[in-house]
Amino acid sequence: MPILTALSYNIHECLGLDKRRDPARIARIIKESGAHIVGLQEVHSDPSGAEELHQMNYLAGLTGLQSVPGPSLERRNGHYGNVLLTRGKVHAVRKLDLSFPGREPRGAIDTDIDFSGERLRVIVTHLGLLRSERQFQVRKLLTALEQKRTDTVILLTDFNEWLPTGRPLRWLHTRLGKTALIRTFPTAFPVFALDRIWVSPASAIVEISSIRTPITRIASDHLPLKATLHTQGDPVPA
């Protein structure tokens, strides 16, 4: 069966533990991962200054991937939120509003992507910090998932769930199948599995693991999470 790889990565606006804001370093991590689909969180894109300040365009340019923006917050100097990068052909894009009253705006990118003859539904999101907020947001995701568009669903997320038995996790495990608990935060000493990748059907998953290298340990406060999965289409180009 053909193999496809997906990455979920909270890049912390490209600000590393060494206090350097280095989009080129993040681009190198993405490129070396070999991922065909990349869900990024905490991307800040400033169109008014140097090229590397528009992080979405800069990362897409250096990696050669197509970008789909999913800003959740407009700032004085640009926009901030989720970004999808992909080698596949984007067939449809939907934006889900997951904002909880009184909290930071949140959203999700909900796309259909063609890969070598197979259509995948790929969702990228970053959930809130409060338990009640995450419960509200997962209910909205589950409502969206009731509309079946493809046989395969990939959810790439900074889930922000600190407890392995949290109710929102259980809800998504019931709907999409149980996903691996991989510790990705903080990078210096990962003890929390804040980042998650779900693939439905779960039988398509070959492996899920974090990328732990000298560069990923300092490039952001989260480690990138990578999933390898089988696809039903033709071989996916490397």
What is the CATH architecture assignment?
Answer: 4-Layer Sandwich
Question: What assembly state would you assign to the polypeptide chains in this entry?
Answer: single chain
What amount of the residues lies in strands? 35-45%
For the termini, the CA-CA separation is 14 Å
Please tell me the total number of domains: 1
Question: Strand tally, please?
Answer: 11
Coarse structural class? alpha+beta
SSE pattern, N- to C-terminal: EHEHEEEEEHEHEEHE
Global mean pLDDT: 94
Low-pLDDT residue spans: none
Helix content: 10-25%
Strand order of the largest sheet: 3-4-2-1-11-10
Q: Can you identify the CATH class?
A: Alpha Beta
Rounded radius of gyration (Å): 16 Å
Query: CATH superfamily, please?
Result: Endonuclease/exonuclease/phosphatase
Largest sheet: 6 strands, mixed
Separate helix tally: 5
Shape: globular
Looking at the structure, the CATH topology is Deoxyribonuclease I, Chain A
What does the model show?
There is one protein chain. The protein contains five helices and eleven strands; from the N terminus they run βαβαβββββαβαββαβ. A six-stranded mixed sheet has the order 3-4-2-1-11-10, with helices on one face. Helix 1 (23-33) packs across helix 2. The model has no long low-confidence stretch (mean pLDDT 94). It is 21% helix and 37% strand. The radius of gyration is 16 Å and the shape is globular. It has one domain (3-230): Endonuclease/exonuclease/phosphatase (Deoxyribonuclease I, Chain A, 4-Layer Sandwich). The protein has helices at residues 23-33, 55-63, 131-145, 167-176, 216-219, and strands at residues 3-10, 37-45, 66-75, 78-86, 89-97, 107-115, 118-126, 152-158, 195-200, 205-210, 225-230. By secondary structure, the protein is an alpha+beta fold.
